[in-house]
């Protein structure tokens, strides 16, 4: 991509501005007592790499807020701090971590890498807040995308900053529905609430939008327990499927695409999370033009602001293994800072209910990406994009992921209005 001199200057200015946050944080961070955010996530076990990726994103986001002076409150500016709680990828451990966070007087928690854990946290926080009205807790969800969490199980205390699975599926299907070369497809996913929701919606949307496509496989596998996906890959190839659709993430996705390559499957992978965490490197050249992913944002979104944003992340975390930046997590922390400032503090104490009332109205912009919170169900409304894997350096693929030499070229972009879907939330408000 050739950039004009003016555009290159803008890119450089934005990159310098964003990367300055890490340097400025130490010098300009406010000295007042920090506002602590409890991150409850799997930091050990098979999905530890995804938990660490989240932590890097949240730390970087809080550094940006702190570099500009922290959260501005009447009693003085206060920095944001992330405190880690290891859920080990288990719902019961997540609930135990929540209790530990509450015991430490943390009133804002965040989690995302399990819809089952998120559902448990929503229930537990709702009960706690009903009992302990002076120690109420706010739950910010960055990745748990089971649609029920902002529909039947919606809660005043829960805010989701990722597009839910049905929204992501609609974006993905906008590309699949035009892929007339696909006449047969294999559906595979992790056997828990999110994986089940993905396959259910895949069946619904295929019936509505591509009734000519035959589903030649439809199965769920145990989550985080399969070490060898060759039997699954062998079945996929034997089915004659021309494409695979999966919501798998973490090692369950990496091992699946690696096994598919080993058995010689040459079909297309339509994925929710195929754009990092080892999947591109595992697929190699076989994935070029064949691995498609959906996300709220990709590094190769073709705007100078977006690319400067990504370049600054890579400067902050130069190790290729530390790649995988999430725009939505940055927007989540920006929304939180905005809501706390608008809610204010009484006698130096922040109040979860007051912050929630302001978070419902959040609208933020970062690096050209604008999103808003929908008050009716607490579902973030933001752009979505679909991208295809390509070799770094080809047109539209300036950046690779994780030093793999492969990146994702954006082929479809949906505005927040195009991505928005109706809800069935009947929220009980305090």
The main sheet comes to: 7 strands, mixed
Question: Please, what is the oligomeric state?
Answer: single chain
Distance between the termini: 52 Å
- How big is the Rg? 21 Å
* Helix residue percentage: 25-40%
CATH topology of the largest domain: Rossmann fold
**What is the overall silhouette?**
globular
Classification by helices and strands: alpha/beta
Give the second-level CATH assignment, the architecture of the largest domain.
Answer: 3-Layer(aba) Sandwich
What's the SSE blueprint?
Blueprint: H1 5-28, E1 35-41, H2 48-67, E2 80-86, H3 91-103, E3 108-111, H4 115-131, E4 138-141, E5 158-160, H5 165-176, E6 184-190, H6 193-209, E7 214-221, H7 230-238, E8 243-246, H8 251-262, E9 268-271, H9 279-283, E10 291-295, H10 304-316, H11 327-343, H12 352-359, E11 363-366, E12 369-374, E13 379-381, E14 384-391, E15 406-414, H13 416-419
Parallel strand pairs: 1-2, 1-3, 3-4, 4-5, 6-7, 6-8, 8-9, 9-10
Antiparallel strand pairs: 10-14, 11-12, 12-13, 14-15
Helix pairs in contact: 1-2, 1-10, 2-11, 3-4, 5-6, 7-8, 11-12
């Amino acid at each position: 991509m050739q950039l004009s001199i003016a555009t290159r200057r803008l890119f450089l200015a934005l990159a310098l501005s964003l990367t300055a946050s890490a340097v400025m944080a130490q010098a300009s961070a406010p000295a007042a007592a920090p506002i602590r955010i409890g991150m409850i996530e799997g930091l050990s076990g098979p999905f530890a790499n995804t938990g660490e990726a989240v932590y890097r994103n949240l730390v970087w986001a809080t550094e940006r807020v702190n570099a500009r002076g922290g959260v501005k409150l009447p009693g003085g500016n206060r920095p944001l701090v992330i405190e880690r709680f290891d859920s080990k990828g288990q719902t019961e451990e997540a609930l135990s971590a929540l209790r530990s966070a509450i015991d430490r007087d943390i009133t804002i928690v965040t989690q995302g890498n399990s819809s089952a854990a998120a559902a448990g946290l929503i229930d537990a926080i709702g009960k706690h807040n009903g009992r302990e009205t002076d120690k109420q807790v706010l739950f910010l969800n960055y990745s748990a995308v089971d649609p029920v969490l902002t529909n039947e199980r919606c809660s005043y205390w829960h805010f989701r900053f990722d597009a839910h699975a049905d929204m992501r599926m609609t974006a993905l299907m906008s590309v699949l529905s035009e892929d007339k070369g696909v006449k047969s497809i294999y559906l595979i996913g992790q056997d828990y609430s999110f994986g089940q929701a993905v396959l259910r919606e895949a069946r619904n949307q295929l019936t509505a939008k591509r009734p000519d496509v035959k589903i030649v496989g439809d199965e769920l596998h145990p989550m985080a327990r399969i070490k060898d996906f060759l039997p699954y890959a062998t079945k996929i190839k034997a089915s004659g499927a021309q494409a695979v659709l999966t919501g798998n993430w973490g090692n369950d996705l990496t091992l699946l695409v690696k096994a598919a390559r080993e058995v010689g499957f040459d079909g297309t992978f339509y994925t929710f999370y195929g754009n990092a965490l080892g999947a591109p490197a595992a697929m190699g050249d076989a994935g070029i033009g064949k691995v498609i992913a959906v996300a709220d944002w990709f590094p190769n979104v073709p705007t100078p602001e977006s690319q400067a944003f990504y370049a600054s992340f890579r400067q902050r975390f130069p190790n290729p293994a530390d790649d995988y930046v999430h725009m939505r997590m940055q927007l989540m922390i920006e929304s939180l800072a905005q809501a706390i400032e608008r809610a204010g503090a009484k006698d130096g104490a922040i109040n979860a209910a007051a912050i929630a009332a302001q978070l419902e109205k959040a609208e933020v912009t970062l690096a050209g990406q604008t999103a808003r919170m929908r008050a009716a169900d607490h579902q973030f409304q933001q752009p979505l994009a679909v991208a295809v894997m390509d070799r770094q350096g080809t047109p539209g693929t300036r950046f690779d992921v994780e030093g793999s030499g492969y990146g994702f070229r954006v082929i479809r972009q949906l505005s927040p209005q195009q991505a928005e879907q109706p809800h069935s939330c009947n929220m009980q408000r305090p």
